[in-house]
Amino acid sequence: MAAYHELITETLESYAVVERQAAALPRVAPHREPGHLPEGDRLGAWYRRTSIRGAASGPLAGRTVAVKDNLCVAGVPMSGGSAALEGFVPERDATVVTRLLDAGAEIIGKSVCEDLCLSGGSHTAVTGPVRNPWDLTRSAGGSSSGSAALLAAGEVDLAIGGDQGGSVRIPAAWCGVVGLKPTFGLVPCTGSVPIEPSVDHVGPMARTVADVAALLAVIAGPDGRDPRQDPRTTVPDYRPALAGDVAGLRVGLLAEGFGRPGRGDPAVDDATRDFARLLAKAGANVSEVSVPEHRDAAHVWTVVFVGGATTQLVDLAGGVAGCDPALAAALHRGRREHAARLSATVKMVALLGAHLIRTSGGAHYATARALTGPLTAAYDAALGQVDMLAMPTLPMTATPLPPPGAPPREQVARALEMIPNTCPFDVTGHPAISIPAGLVDGLPVGLMLVARHGGEATLIRAAAAYERLAGGFPMSPLTGGHS
């Protein structure tokens, strides 16, 4: 033991050097104000209100932005939707925050997100539920719940979301706005609360396709700090895609994305098929394609997600590259000190993951990660036949919020039941966009389009064309009219 003690003591010098060098990392600007708690927020969608103005000019000059509360905004308190981070104040901006400000945007607040982002509902945040602007008794979707609700209510021009299992696209669909999950690694996750490094995504949200394209152009591209990114990646000009038509575009209706068992709603499927008919009239070639692997893809995602989330919640607690050092330390401390106050979903994932680690090590996770290769190849094969896949973003419209004190089974069901079409593309990394596809019983329906890796321009082309053909997207009763 003495020999190992000596070796470890010598190696610890590296850690001491890193701690000393940490002082050179950029910290909060001295003029940054912490903002204030929201008042009169009937949606429960704001975590903090701010007024952080960016550059005097730029592509987003004059536009207001809500930043999901899993992203660091230096000097502004954040919680990641969780008791585990209450009171934490970041010292550094997330990369996407820096880019927003450099582009001239004004950050007017942090939007509420689900407890550590482990929910597709909008009922697990430590601050309480986020309500859907179309029906205040229903879920806004999650985990980027506040971002979507604020957009749908017209309280903000643009918003940033995060997506690990559908967390940009789920609330976009249920709130009737546009949300895009980029190709894995296109947008840096530096400065965000991590869940699983292979499924973490940050993406743009807005009421129109053009605004999503403009926002994506600002936040995309390597930052030199997120190892998940390819430093050779370049960001194209998405503006030409906004004016493109759909003549000759090949759209494949994914057979396995329709008729989902359980809580699937045939009316939602019908609304999505109406999209296809509209595009076909405009010259698109619409056909049905099959990817049998899609039926079980959510199970592969589940094992990857639980394995990665457990690493953050039970083991390293945020200690991954690209995570803010102070954020990693706060997560490590807070998840122990406030474990009893974590949501039922977080507790379930942590307990399950810990059990699997003790009983089988990382075998299940390793197997699921190995299966992502064949799964990705199956989607790629279908995308070799068509330019994009189309399916309902979610199999049902927004569900009622669980009542206070609902049993864990109900809370977890409302958090995860909607994800079978969205989560596969987090594990495969394909870009996917959710756009409004009309209303069913007065509630928004989302259409999801999926393209080849790097195919964001194709998604924007089709989504913008559909937006024009539909005459704009319907707006919630809190705003009225069309976008």
UniProtKB/TrEMBL annotation:
GO molecular function, one term: catalytic activity
A Pfam family: Amidase
Domain Amidase: 54-459
SUPFAM superfamilies documented for this protein: Amidase signature (AS) enzymes
Gene3D superfamilies in the cross-refs: Amidase signature (AS) domain
PANTHER family, alphabetized: AMIDASE, TRANSAMIDASE
Record protein name field: Amidase
Organism of derivation: Nonomuraea solani
Source taxonomy: Bacteria, Bacillati, Actinomycetota, Actinomycetes, Streptosporangiales
